From TrEMBL, chain A:
<keyword id="KW-0285">Flavoprotein</keyword>
<dbReference type="InterPro" id="IPR046373">
    <property type="entry name" value="Acyl-CoA_Oxase/DH_mid-dom_sf"/>
</dbReference>
<dbReference type="Pfam" id="PF00441">
    <property type="entry name" value="Acyl-CoA_dh_1"/>
</dbReference>
<dbReference type="GO" id="GO:0003995">
    <property type="term" value="F:acyl-CoA dehydrogenase activity"/>
</dbReference>
<dbReference type="InterPro" id="IPR009100">
    <property type="entry name" value="AcylCoA_DH/oxidase_NM_dom_sf"/>
</dbReference>
<feature type="domain" description="Acyl-CoA dehydrogenase/oxidase N-terminal">
    <location>
        <begin position="15"/>
        <end position="92"/>
    </location>
</feature>
<keyword id="KW-0560">Oxidoreductase</keyword>
<dbReference type="InterPro" id="IPR037069">
    <property type="entry name" value="AcylCoA_DH/ox_N_sf"/>
</dbReference>
<keyword id="KW-0274">FAD</keyword>
TrEMBL record, chain B:
<dbReference type="Pfam" id="PF00441">
    <property type="entry name" value="Acyl-CoA_dh_1"/>
</dbReference>
<dbReference type="InterPro" id="IPR046373">
    <property type="entry name" value="Acyl-CoA_Oxase/DH_mid-dom_sf"/>
</dbReference>
<dbReference type="Pfam" id="PF02770">
    <property type="entry name" value="Acyl-CoA_dh_M"/>
</dbReference>
<comment type="similarity">
    <text>Belongs to the acyl-CoA dehydrogenase family.</text>
</comment>
<dbReference type="Pfam" id="PF02771">
    <property type="entry name" value="Acyl-CoA_dh_N"/>
</dbReference>
<keyword id="KW-0285">Flavoprotein</keyword>
<dbReference type="InterPro" id="IPR036250">
    <property type="entry name" value="AcylCo_DH-like_C"/>
</dbReference>
<dbReference type="GO" id="GO:0050660">
    <property type="term" value="F:flavin adenine dinucleotide binding"/>
</dbReference>
<dbReference type="GO" id="GO:0005886">
    <property type="term" value="C:plasma membrane"/>
</dbReference>
Amino acid sequence: MPQSIFDDSEGMLAMLRDSVATLASRQPGAASVRQKRAAGADMDKVLWTAMAQAGWTGILIPEDLGGAGLSLTEQAVVSEALGRALISEPVATGAVFASILLARADASVERGRLVAGLVDGSLILAPAWKDGIGRSVSARAADGGYMLSGEKRHVDLAVSATDFLVVAALDGGFGLFSVPAKGVGLSVETAHGVDGAAIGTVRFDQCWLPQAALLARASSEAELLDAAITSARVALAAELAGIASRAVEITIDYTKARVQFGKPIASFQVVQHRLVDMWSDAEFACAAVVNAVETLADGDAQAGRMAVLAAKARAGDAAVSICRRAVHLHGAMGFTDECDIGLYLKRAISLNATLGQPEDLRLEFVNLERAA
Amino acid sequence: MTSATDWNALADEAFREAFRDLVERRLPSELRFIRKQRPLFDEVSVWYHALAEEGWLAPVWPVEHGGMGLTPAKHMIYVEEWGRLGCPRIPDHGLGLIGPLLLEHGTDEQKAYYLPRILTGEHVWCQGYSEPNSGSDLASLRTAAVRDGDAFVVNGQKIWTTLAHCANWIFALVRTSRDEKVRQKGITVLLIDMTTPGVRVRPIANLRGETDFCEVFFDDVRVPVANVVGQIDQGWDVAKSVLGHERIFLGATTRPEIAIERLEKLARARGAFEDPAFRSRYARHRLDLYDLGSAFERFAKVLRDGGELGADVSMLKIFTTELYQRITEETLTLAGEDARYFDDIEAGNDQVDAMNLFLDSRAPAIFGGSNEIQKNILAKAVLRLPS
Ligand SMILES: Cc1cc2nc3c(=O)[nH]c(=O)nc-3n(C[C@H](O)[C@H](O)[C@H](O)COP(=O)(O)OP(=O)(O)OC[C@H]3O[C@@H](n4cnc5c(N)ncnc54)[C@H](O)[C@@H]3O)c2cc1C
């Protein structure tokens, strides 16, 4: 059924897909989501550790820094497979986003420590880049280091984090800071995320950091963040495409097995047409992901950005709307918490809302195109 | 106390005023505009009993049975005000379904026994139609009732039974015989005391994490034959006749109205009305709702003129349930990254239950006959399309 089709002459991508499926068979995603939700947790430590051991937290980290040195192709394949399996760990932010931030930071002992911990799973890094409304985070020089104040929202892994990667205004420009979770002046508040994971709001109240905490600086926020956002969006799009594809399969299976009026409900033409629409939407999502990865690799920055915007929008819309229709085709069963299809819907909504909803991404695409 | 005939004689505005006055006096403010779609009996019993004391609990029941005897026209005002004033839903299967069923098909003894107990709240009812293998295809139901002297012995299972965990009576469709050609035959309406040995209820959590519906199991449950409503084996027609003019309410504007109020609140708080792209999307929803009002009115007029509703009224149900979904989806779009929250989200100094409503909006397109089933009916009964 639908899947992102990349050139895989060596069979390496198929192997990656298989290893995600193997992990999922040992630790089913849906069960993990339910546990996480019941515990009010923001991650599944067992799953994350297993993923780190498999090398999936450092896919995009260059080899000379101790990572796998692979490309967005491999990342997309892993993310798509995780989406299919409903393994809902915050890979796009906690691994991909963090990897790119660190890979582009200045070489330093602190960066070395963070990268090593991300790759082997001993550190949990939580990128925090989105400012609270009217409470943006800023840093100023103080006592031979920096003092941070302000608030970041929508932070994944905020409870489990050992270290935060925080973007803060600094001297008219911006800095990327490494902030230990146990630091004085840092506090975390959480709310329930729809996908079962807790989402953090992180407050910095006169939080002092040593000089070495400054990992990178740039004149604009975009310069610090754009590359990380782009890669994370590709990972999100791939995960959404995986969710979309799997939701179609689950629904085909369900409607073939569910008998009403003496026939499988999948035999009714209305249901068939709807399933065809869903399948086609998932195929479009997968094609968009492949296009994003390949266009980025071609090196034309503008074309790459546009392709990523398109893919994230397409895959997000596809995943959410496929899952909505999937829930409906499950009848009352789809409205229960026990049925996994609802978890797919919720995960799709959450990822779709991360790093830009389709409406915004499409506008950005058109604005870029028309500015060119 | 005003007698019921007077309610119908009252000018519409005066009737509205009387209802508002009642709400002001008797509905505790903490029960107004509550988030829960389906409160349990105990959570809203104050309101239930207050309505009973004031004689406002059963708007369409005849006066001699303790109802208000309202005409459909006045009943529509009642329902409208109920929603507008934020009255909480009360467990209403007794008032809205079993009451009318007994009034039409019940014996005098049944009416005398059950109706007053609904009004006092002693009996709280739930509706046992759907089964695990009989949803859209209700006529395939299999819960078996086998005659044993002056009782039926019931075995089987119902599912999706709303509020079964706070009900003590269930009106169930059971199979008393089998006719291979006409599956609707051999179905009987049975009133079952849920405290009878052999009845077991298991609540089922829904997408919103609430438990509104349940599974109900019957294991050798003895039910007196006197608890049959109408004729044995003729329950299908009994069950189908029940909704009558109330089918119009399946198409009411209430749900999308609630949803658009939330959308507007969030849009105001975020300045979205300044954004032309949002305004244009909002305008579509707003006019969908406005036009639903017009279409509703077209059917309401039929009722006010003393006519009866046809199958075509189902078009309202399809439209309103889909509009409810579209508006709640729009609210999540507007919420941006906040659409990741399960919890209510900030809208200025207020909160909006964006996810709660989005998830809730999945259900009405399924229950009460899914939208596909409604369309099948419209295709056949209204457009007379060939098989
Ligand atoms: C919130 C909620 C509360 C409920 N409360 C009650 C209650 O109190 N008492 C009670 O008895 N029941 C209750 N129900 C059950 C409800 O009546 C059934 O869910 C409904 O009849 C659909 O049946 P099903 O869920 O088995 O879905 P299915 O019949 O399995 O349908 C699954 C999907 O297939 C589609 N489909 C089925 N047949 C066709 C066809 N011929 N052509 C095209 N598409 C088709 C449906 O539209 C649906 O999308 C409740 C349901 C919900 C969601």
